[in-house]
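Supplementary Note 3. Input sequence used for the single-chain structure prediction.
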Amino acid sequence: MRERGALLGVVPARGGSKRLPRKNVRPLAGRPLIAWTVDAARASGVLDDVLVSTDDAEIAEAARAAGASVPWLRPAELATDTAASVDVLRHALAWHEAERGPVEAVVLLQPTSPFRSAASIRGAVAAFRAQAGGEPQAVASVSRALQHPAWCFRIDGEAMQPFLGWEPLRQRSQDLPPAYALNGAVYVVPAAALRRGAPLLGPGLRAFVMDDPREALDIDDADDWRAAESLAPQLAGERPH
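The predicted structure, written as discrete structure tokens, is reproduced below.
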């Protein structure tokens, strides 16, 4: 049986946001956006620490008020538009293991997915820990794809070319195998993979399926924010505060 270590929740929240400025501290149903994710992470009951990695003092203050740990402000080189999430995770992991002890896995929770539930965090962690054998694979949350990839095309000149070829288009849509898309709400990544420099996603990736499409909402622009505002009142009572 694999030895279990700490589960470190990491919420990456950069201050710069071009499409929706200051979105991580923007009030959603009366609470800063980042508080929705911190609430769910703490309520899940499976994370030994919920750490917010940010370069922004206002975000840090809002995260601490919601109950997260913010032990430092993220280095400038990890706060650019091109900084990779996996590097942010490695930075948080290295600090946590140096200061607080070994970590089994890092649970990435993006603050732009405010409606991902505590139950889904528990479910993704359970799927990660249910793997048999040696080193487990990463787990990522997915939702049913809005558009089946068989019906997606690239355009070469003026000609349309289906990504999966023409054969699947001869089948009825209901006969095609279900298709799923990453929704960005939860990633459970083995600490060992992060330590050796592995990418965040790769072969062997396991799925945790979210059936509630509301959990898959990822806020990127003003249209997404309006959708979140319409959902927030009905979901506020279902989420921990």
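DSSP finds six helices and ten strands in the chain. The helical segments are 33-44, 57-66, 85-100, 118-129, 191-195, 222-236.
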